[in-house]
Amino acid sequence: xxxxxxxxxxxxxxxxxxxxxxxxxxxxxxxxxxxxxxxxxxxxxxxxxxxxxxxxxxxxxxxxxxxxxxxxxxxxxxxxxxxxxxxxxxxxxxxxxxxxxxxxxxxxxxxxxxxxxxxxxxxxxxxxxxxxxxxxxxxxxxxxxxxxxxxxxxxxxxxxxxx
Length: 163
Known about the structure:
By secondary structure, the chain is mainly α. Helix content is 84%, strand content 2%. The chain has 3 helices and 2 strands; from the N terminus they run H-H-H-E-E. Helix 1 (2-19) runs antiparallel to helix 2.
């Protein structure tokens, strides 16, 4: 666009020289300079507007990121709170389930007595199984270490095998 105005300026000046008008030449020179200055000011204004828009867009992006971070943090806290509530409810249900009994506490017939026996068996099963599994583990350990000592295999303190 600047090239076209330059050609117009040169063409007008040559035409003015050809016709002999000094005023026409001066008018064309000053007119060209003023149009170039006005175009330069427009470009400068547009550049400043563009920079301001980019700055505002960057600030808007930063604001949206901060807002998104807050929402993500709130969602994490809500999830943690929900998990805590669910864990508490599961624990309460576990305690209620462990306290459940078949008998009603008043034995009037043989059927009620059998319910008391079922409660006893139910209550003693977990501790009995725990003790049995502990005994199996200890027995296996003792048997294995006895086997190692009979076959002249030694185990050092770090757990590596020595023959």
